[in-house]
Amino acid sequence: MADDQGFCVRRDRQDRRLVYHPQRLIIVTLRLHRRLAAAALVCAAAAPTTGSHARNDPVDTPVSPKLVIVVEAPRDISLWTAAGSGSTISGADIQRARPTHANELFGRVPGTWISRGDGQESLTAIRSPVLTGAGACGAFLFMEDGIPIRPAGFCNVNNLFELNFAQAARVEVARGPAGGLYGANALHGAINVISPRPGPRPLMFELETGPDDTAIGQVSYGTQHWRLDAQGQSTSGYRDAADLGEQKLGLGHLTDIGRWQVESHLSATNLNQETAGFIFGKNAYRNAGLRRDNPNPEAYRDASSLRMHSAWRATVGEHSVLSITPYARWSRMDFLQHFLPGQPTEENGQRSAGVILDLRQPLGNGGEWRWGAAAEYAKGFLQEVQAGPVTEGSAFLKATRPAGVHYDFEVASRMVALWHAIDLPLDDAQHWHVLHSLRAERLDYDYDNQTLTGNTRDDGTSCTFGGCLFNRPADRTDHFNNLAGRVGLRYGAPATGQWHGAYSVAFRPPQVTELYRLQRGQSAADLNSERLSGVELGYRRAWSDAQISLTAFGMRKTHFIFTDAAGFNVSDGRTKHFGLETEASWRPARRHELHLSASLARHRYAFDRAASGGEIIKNGNEIDTAPPFMANARWLYQPRRDLTLELEGIRMGPYYLDPANTARYPGHSLLNLRADWATSTKTTLFARITNLTDHDYAERADLAFGNYRYFPGLPRRLFVGIEWTP
After folding, report:
1. What is the CATH classification number for the domain harbouring 672?
2. pTM for this one?
């Protein structure tokens, strides 16, 4: 099983183990701030100023209504939900859930599953199976305030631990191919975390404790111009040798500089975890003696990230705003690949910067036209080193996986994109709207091999059995030009019933590790961008005490990238996906609310092929780790004004464990209970019980290399805490 494929800034080669130094974080933060501020000022100076004065200047230059424009950073997914399926998890829902892992939050979105690994590890599914492999993470776009948290081509399967969703103002999910608006990697969908904006907020502390020495702390504070959000957690872990420490920081600033309103945000994260791997054996997750076992006590993961963006907005005309958003990002990771023979260590990282522009022009008939542009530059590296020889297994394994450097390369990338979107009413009453978006994007890779080319040992000697397993391509450049778009039609309004239909196309370019982390026999990977096209039909209706949305979809993916039986990375796979999704809420009485999200879907292979690990893909088979049915139901009850209870039910349907469809996981049902009690205007006590019925289940099940393997689910656990405002 492939693991993280992220990138970050290169370190001293002698420093094999990442050690977190706060002073380094502060230095990098200051450097990024200076560079980003300089870039923002250059952009601001280049922006048009005709038709506007400073915010306090009472004089306005007359502007024709047809020329009134708005340029704004794409902070939310409202453009997508106008004729597409989108869900929002509100700040109140986040506060009640108090998630310590993304898995605990995103089940509230239909068709979405964040499969929980150990610690903060995860795999994502949005209208898709849980995808694995070197670049499978590229099927989903993760954003913060509308800005991707990683460069295109440098994805990481565990990227969600770099987002502070537990303190977000809200979290949004776009379901389905959204590349026409968001570009590369928004293949099956996109997740957007919206940061809290600066504004007056009293100082708030929150402390929580639970089993396995778990301690969680949060602090928030806001003024007219500043906003601070910080959190940290520490636990010894349910499983053996699975300690975890994590810290996240968000700092926002809002001010006026001349005619510009400037909103900036800084995010920093740090993770240090000792990792527990799969447990093995059929139904091992039901064995109390095995659930706590850690077959890989030596495994670890250390990662940190830093991001900053600054949105500069200025008034243009009577009703318009201009916004230009430069950003900078940095991340690094060091982890043990305990799932591979020889257990090599991987170090990777990236540093990147870019700018997003978004132009909106109101149309005279109540419609809107928008266009935008984006450009970014990134540089990353990856190094894989095996400390010693393979001591167990066949002679082939021992000979073809020698100690030393397996991979050592750097990649520089450049991305430019142009896009537009239009919402055009077709009648004077604005019942009918046509919606269209189109995005053109170019991505260039400049690959630089830092060690010997070929599949030799790092000293140039050859391995027996036909050569070493890994192959290092020679220096090269690769270019990917892609188009994505959507055309949709909307009729009506939610209050009286609203229909929408859309056809969308999205793409994801090959990721860096798919192109340059090759095995013997393949000196170059000739890969195409994956493409997903889909249609959907939806209906939504809102009443005074209820609302519902229903969506039917069908999608087809081409150029699906996978590893074949020869160990080659190829892009000639095809899959198909179709299903139904619903979201509903109902307030049957003043103190009661009911919420439901559910999906019924099928994800199937549309080709025949032998794949790596001896797996056989057959046309028509269901894709493994793709539950056909998922549901989340919540009952919110407020018996008193100061007391709130939430009972959550989760249903995960059965799913196949292998492409041949020879084994299944039976699924599971879970209950969680949460309570908040406001004892005073300044103090709230809260508690939550997860897995209320103490059900034995697997967070994720798999069948690979003839072995059943599981990440075991956690037993019943009680957490209690206090929220206090001095």
Report:
1. 2.40.170.20
2. 0.90
